[in-house]
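Hi Y.,

Following your request, here is the sequence exactly as I used it, all 298 residues.
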Amino acid sequence: MKTQNIGFIGLGNIGFPMARRLLNYGFRLTAYDLDQRHRATLTNLGAIWANNLEILCKHVDTVITSLPGPAEVREVFESEKGLLKHLHDGQTWIEMSTNDKTLIRDIGMQLNCRGVSVLEAPVTGGVANVNLGKITLFVAGKESIYSRTLPIFQALAKEIIYLGELGNATVAKLLTNMIAFVHEAILAESLILGVKAGVNPHCLLNAIQKSYAGSFVANLDGPKILSGDYDSSFAIKLALKDMSLTLELAEQLSNPLLFGTLVTELLKKTQKQYGPDADTLMSYKIQEDEQNCALQKK
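Below is the corresponding structure, written out as C-alpha coordinates. Let me know if you'd prefer a different format.
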Protein backbone atom coordinates (compact mmCIF):
# COMPACT_ATOMS: atom_id res chain seq x y z
CA MET A 1 0.00 0.00 0.00
CA LYS A 2 2.78 2.47 0.77
CA THR A 3 3.97 2.36 -2.84
CA GLN A 4 0.64 3.39 -4.35
CA ASN A 5 0.32 6.66 -6.24
CA ILE A 6 -1.66 9.44 -4.59
CA GLY A 7 -2.88 12.63 -6.21
CA PHE A 8 -3.26 15.45 -3.67
CA ILE A 9 -5.37 18.52 -4.43
CA GLY A 10 -5.44 21.49 -2.05
CA LEU A 11 -2.24 22.49 -0.27
CA GLY A 12 -3.41 24.98 2.34
CA ASN A 13 -2.83 25.02 6.10
CA ILE A 14 -4.19 21.47 6.42
CA GLY A 15 -3.45 19.98 3.00
CA PHE A 16 0.22 20.90 2.73
CA PRO A 17 1.42 19.21 5.94
CA MET A 18 -0.69 16.14 5.13
CA ALA A 19 0.88 15.90 1.67
CA ARG A 20 4.33 16.27 3.20
CA ARG A 21 3.64 13.50 5.72
CA LEU A 22 2.52 11.13 2.97
CA LEU A 23 5.79 11.73 1.14
CA ASN A 24 7.75 11.13 4.33
CA TYR A 25 5.90 7.84 4.79
CA GLY A 26 6.99 6.62 1.36
CA PHE A 27 3.88 7.23 -0.73
CA ARG A 28 4.35 8.40 -4.30
CA LEU A 29 2.57 11.72 -4.62
CA THR A 30 1.42 14.01 -7.41
CA ALA A 31 0.33 17.44 -6.15
CA TYR A 32 -1.89 20.19 -7.54
CA ASP A 33 -2.99 23.60 -6.29
CA LEU A 34 -3.69 26.92 -7.98
CA ASP A 35 -1.39 28.44 -5.35
CA GLN A 36 2.11 27.12 -6.08
CA ARG A 37 3.90 28.40 -2.97
CA HIS A 38 4.58 24.85 -1.72
CA ARG A 39 5.62 23.47 -5.12
CA ALA A 40 9.38 23.60 -4.52
CA THR A 41 9.15 22.07 -1.05
CA LEU A 42 7.07 19.12 -2.21
CA THR A 43 9.02 18.45 -5.41
CA ASN A 44 12.27 18.53 -3.42
CA LEU A 45 10.75 15.78 -1.25
CA GLY A 46 10.01 13.70 -4.35
CA ALA A 47 6.51 14.80 -5.38
CA ILE A 48 5.47 15.37 -8.97
CA TRP A 49 3.69 18.66 -9.63
CA ALA A 50 0.71 18.44 -11.99
CA ASN A 51 -0.20 21.49 -14.05
CA ASN A 52 -3.85 20.44 -14.31
CA LEU A 53 -6.32 17.87 -12.97
CA GLU A 54 -6.25 15.75 -16.11
CA ILE A 55 -2.52 15.13 -15.74
CA LEU A 56 -2.91 14.42 -12.02
CA CYS A 57 -5.62 11.79 -12.58
CA LYS A 58 -3.74 9.92 -15.31
CA HIS A 59 -1.07 8.45 -13.08
CA VAL A 60 -2.58 7.95 -9.61
CA ASP A 61 -4.60 5.27 -7.81
CA THR A 62 -6.12 7.55 -5.16
CA VAL A 63 -7.09 11.22 -5.31
CA ILE A 64 -7.30 13.24 -2.08
CA THR A 65 -8.95 16.65 -1.93
CA SER A 66 -8.43 19.06 0.97
CA LEU A 67 -10.31 22.25 0.12
CA PRO A 68 -11.83 25.20 2.02
CA GLY A 69 -15.46 24.11 1.64
CA PRO A 70 -18.36 22.94 -0.56
CA ALA A 71 -18.03 25.74 -3.12
CA GLU A 72 -14.42 24.79 -3.84
CA VAL A 73 -15.25 21.07 -3.86
CA ARG A 74 -18.03 21.68 -6.38
CA GLU A 75 -15.72 23.78 -8.56
CA VAL A 76 -12.96 21.17 -8.56
CA PHE A 77 -15.42 18.46 -9.55
CA GLU A 78 -17.93 20.12 -11.83
CA SER A 79 -15.87 22.69 -13.73
CA GLU A 80 -15.16 22.16 -17.43
CA LYS A 81 -11.79 20.55 -16.64
CA GLY A 82 -12.77 19.10 -13.25
CA LEU A 83 -12.41 15.72 -11.61
CA LEU A 84 -15.76 14.37 -12.81
CA LYS A 85 -14.30 14.32 -16.32
CA HIS A 86 -11.02 12.69 -15.36
CA LEU A 87 -11.51 10.21 -12.49
CA HIS A 88 -11.95 6.73 -13.89
CA ASP A 89 -12.85 3.15 -13.06
CA GLY A 90 -10.67 1.59 -10.35
CA GLN A 91 -9.59 4.84 -8.72
CA THR A 92 -10.47 6.02 -5.21
CA TRP A 93 -11.43 9.53 -4.16
CA ILE A 94 -10.91 10.59 -0.52
CA GLU A 95 -12.57 13.94 0.30
CA MET A 96 -10.99 15.55 3.37
CA SER A 97 -12.62 19.01 3.31
CA THR A 98 -15.31 20.20 5.71
CA ASN A 99 -18.14 19.63 3.30
CA ASP A 100 -21.90 19.48 2.87
CA LYS A 101 -23.58 16.12 3.50
CA THR A 102 -25.82 16.36 0.43
CA LEU A 103 -22.96 17.38 -1.86
CA ILE A 104 -20.63 14.58 -0.78
CA ARG A 105 -23.38 12.00 -1.27
CA ASP A 106 -24.37 13.42 -4.66
CA ILE A 107 -20.82 13.42 -6.01
CA GLY A 108 -20.26 10.00 -4.45
CA MET A 109 -23.21 8.56 -6.36
CA GLN A 110 -21.96 10.04 -9.63
CA LEU A 111 -18.49 8.62 -9.11
CA ASN A 112 -19.75 5.20 -8.01
CA CYS A 113 -21.59 4.93 -11.34
CA ARG A 114 -18.21 5.33 -13.05
CA GLY A 115 -16.51 2.70 -10.91
CA VAL A 116 -14.73 5.19 -8.63
CA SER A 117 -14.64 4.33 -4.91
CA VAL A 118 -15.46 7.18 -2.52
CA LEU A 119 -14.63 7.98 1.10
CA GLU A 120 -14.85 11.17 3.15
CA ALA A 121 -12.33 11.85 5.90
CA PRO A 122 -12.60 15.37 7.36
CA VAL A 123 -9.83 16.45 9.71
CA THR A 124 -10.08 17.71 13.29
CA GLY A 125 -7.45 18.66 15.84
CA GLY A 126 -5.93 21.91 14.60
CA VAL A 127 -3.08 22.88 12.31
CA ALA A 128 -0.35 22.23 14.89
CA ASN A 129 -1.49 18.65 15.29
CA VAL A 130 -1.59 18.12 11.52
CA ASN A 131 2.13 18.83 11.42
CA LEU A 132 2.71 16.37 14.28
CA GLY A 133 0.51 13.63 12.87
CA LYS A 134 -1.74 13.87 15.92
CA ILE A 135 -5.00 14.79 14.21
CA THR A 136 -8.23 12.82 14.33
CA LEU A 137 -9.94 11.71 11.13
CA PHE A 138 -13.65 11.03 10.79
CA VAL A 139 -14.03 8.49 7.97
CA ALA A 140 -17.21 7.40 6.23
CA GLY A 141 -18.05 5.34 3.16
CA LYS A 142 -17.99 1.64 2.36
CA GLU A 143 -16.09 -0.24 5.06
CA SER A 144 -14.25 -2.38 2.51
CA ILE A 145 -12.81 0.76 0.89
CA TYR A 146 -11.93 2.15 4.32
CA SER A 147 -10.03 -1.03 5.19
CA ARG A 148 -8.15 -0.91 1.89
CA THR A 149 -7.04 2.70 2.36
CA LEU A 150 -6.34 2.54 6.09
CA PRO A 151 -2.52 2.87 5.70
CA ILE A 152 -3.03 6.32 4.19
CA PHE A 153 -5.02 7.44 7.22
CA GLN A 154 -2.55 5.85 9.62
CA ALA A 155 0.23 7.97 8.09
CA LEU A 156 -1.75 11.12 8.84
CA ALA A 157 -3.60 10.67 12.10
CA LYS A 158 -3.32 9.54 15.69
CA GLU A 159 -7.03 8.68 15.89
CA ILE A 160 -9.23 7.33 13.08
CA ILE A 161 -12.95 7.00 13.72
CA TYR A 162 -15.10 5.10 11.21
CA LEU A 163 -18.66 6.45 11.12
CA GLY A 164 -20.51 4.35 8.55
CA GLU A 165 -22.22 5.58 5.41
CA LEU A 166 -21.02 8.48 3.31
CA GLY A 167 -22.11 11.82 4.77
CA ASN A 168 -21.90 10.75 8.42
CA ALA A 169 -18.33 12.02 8.79
CA THR A 170 -19.35 15.43 7.49
CA VAL A 171 -22.11 15.62 10.09
CA ALA A 172 -19.68 14.66 12.87
CA LYS A 173 -17.16 17.28 11.72
CA LEU A 174 -19.75 20.06 11.61
CA LEU A 175 -21.05 19.19 15.08
CA THR A 176 -17.62 18.95 16.68
CA ASN A 177 -16.67 22.30 15.13
CA MET A 178 -19.81 23.87 16.56
CA ILE A 179 -18.98 22.49 20.01
CA ALA A 180 -15.44 23.89 19.72
CA PHE A 181 -16.71 27.36 18.77
CA VAL A 182 -19.13 27.33 21.71
CA HIS A 183 -16.28 26.25 24.00
CA GLU A 184 -14.18 29.16 22.76
CA ALA A 185 -16.97 31.63 23.46
CA ILE A 186 -17.72 30.41 26.98
CA LEU A 187 -14.03 30.11 27.86
CA ALA A 188 -13.53 33.76 26.93
CA GLU A 189 -16.59 34.80 28.96
CA SER A 190 -15.40 32.84 31.98
CA LEU A 191 -11.82 34.10 31.93
CA ILE A 192 -12.94 37.72 31.55
CA LEU A 193 -15.46 37.45 34.39
CA GLY A 194 -12.87 35.77 36.61
CA VAL A 195 -10.28 38.46 35.94
CA LYS A 196 -12.82 41.21 36.65
CA ALA A 197 -13.59 39.42 39.93
CA GLY A 198 -9.90 39.59 40.86
CA VAL A 199 -8.66 36.07 39.99
CA ASN A 200 -5.29 35.69 38.27
CA PRO A 201 -6.10 34.46 34.71
CA HIS A 202 -3.30 31.89 34.68
CA CYS A 203 -4.48 30.37 37.94
CA LEU A 204 -8.07 30.44 36.74
CA LEU A 205 -7.20 28.74 33.45
CA ASN A 206 -5.34 26.04 35.36
CA ALA A 207 -8.42 25.51 37.53
CA ILE A 208 -10.64 25.23 34.43
CA GLN A 209 -8.27 22.80 32.73
CA LYS A 210 -8.18 20.53 35.77
CA SER A 211 -11.92 20.65 36.40
CA TYR A 212 -15.04 19.01 35.00
CA ALA A 213 -15.10 21.93 32.55
CA GLY A 214 -11.68 21.01 31.15
CA SER A 215 -11.51 20.60 27.37
CA PHE A 216 -9.23 20.40 24.35
CA VAL A 217 -10.16 24.03 23.65
CA ALA A 218 -9.16 25.15 27.15
CA ASN A 219 -5.87 23.28 26.92
CA LEU A 220 -4.96 24.54 23.44
CA ASP A 221 -6.50 28.00 23.21
CA GLY A 222 -6.23 29.11 26.84
CA PRO A 223 -2.42 29.44 27.03
CA LYS A 224 -2.29 31.09 23.60
CA ILE A 225 -4.82 33.76 24.56
CA LEU A 226 -3.14 34.51 27.89
CA SER A 227 0.13 35.04 26.02
CA GLY A 228 -1.52 37.41 23.54
CA ASP A 229 -1.42 34.94 20.65
CA TYR A 230 -4.65 34.96 18.64
CA ASP A 231 -3.40 32.75 15.80
CA SER A 232 -4.78 29.26 15.31
CA SER A 233 -4.42 29.40 11.49
CA PHE A 234 -8.19 29.11 11.09
CA ALA A 235 -9.97 32.07 9.50
CA ILE A 236 -13.28 33.49 10.71
CA LYS A 237 -14.74 33.06 7.22
CA LEU A 238 -14.13 29.30 7.43
CA ALA A 239 -15.71 29.10 10.87
CA LEU A 240 -18.77 30.93 9.58
CA LYS A 241 -18.90 28.62 6.57
CA ASP A 242 -18.95 25.63 8.93
CA MET A 243 -21.63 27.17 11.12
CA SER A 244 -23.75 28.04 8.10
CA LEU A 245 -23.64 24.40 7.01
CA THR A 246 -24.50 23.27 10.54
CA LEU A 247 -27.46 25.64 10.82
CA GLU A 248 -28.70 24.52 7.39
CA LEU A 249 -28.57 20.91 8.53
CA ALA A 250 -30.48 21.80 11.69
CA GLU A 251 -33.11 23.64 9.67
CA GLN A 252 -33.55 20.68 7.33
CA LEU A 253 -34.21 18.47 10.37
CA SER A 254 -36.36 21.08 12.18
CA ASN A 255 -33.90 21.02 15.07
CA PRO A 256 -33.24 24.48 16.58
CA LEU A 257 -29.72 25.24 17.79
CA LEU A 258 -29.75 27.74 20.64
CA PHE A 259 -26.02 27.83 21.34
CA GLY A 260 -25.10 27.28 17.69
CA THR A 261 -27.09 30.36 16.74
CA LEU A 262 -25.55 32.45 19.52
CA VAL A 263 -21.98 31.53 18.64
CA THR A 264 -22.68 32.22 14.96
CA GLU A 265 -23.72 35.76 15.88
CA LEU A 266 -20.49 36.19 17.85
CA LEU A 267 -18.45 34.99 14.86
CA LYS A 268 -20.31 37.37 12.55
CA LYS A 269 -19.60 40.26 14.92
CA THR A 270 -15.92 39.26 15.01
CA GLN A 271 -15.74 39.11 11.23
CA LYS A 272 -17.37 42.53 10.92
CA GLN A 273 -14.84 43.97 13.38
CA TYR A 274 -11.65 42.30 12.14
CA GLY A 275 -12.42 41.05 8.63
CA PRO A 276 -13.04 37.58 7.10
CA ASP A 277 -9.36 36.58 7.11
CA ALA A 278 -8.91 37.30 10.82
CA ASP A 279 -8.33 34.25 12.98
CA THR A 280 -11.21 32.54 14.77
CA LEU A 281 -9.45 33.24 18.08
CA MET A 282 -10.19 36.93 17.59
CA SER A 283 -13.60 36.01 19.00
CA TYR A 284 -11.76 36.11 22.36
CA LYS A 285 -10.30 39.54 21.57
CA ILE A 286 -13.64 41.11 20.70
CA GLN A 287 -15.04 40.02 24.07
CA GLU A 288 -11.98 41.40 25.86
CA ASP A 289 -12.42 44.73 24.06
CA GLU A 290 -16.16 44.91 24.76
CA GLN A 291 -15.59 44.24 28.46
CA ASN A 292 -12.46 46.45 28.61
CA CYS A 293 -10.62 43.55 30.22
CA ALA A 294 -7.34 42.29 28.75
CA LEU A 295 -6.47 38.71 29.74
CA GLN A 296 -2.74 39.14 29.22
CA LYS A 297 -1.75 39.70 32.84
CA LYS A 298 1.43 38.46 34.46
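The longest strand covers residues 135-141.

Thanks again,
Q.
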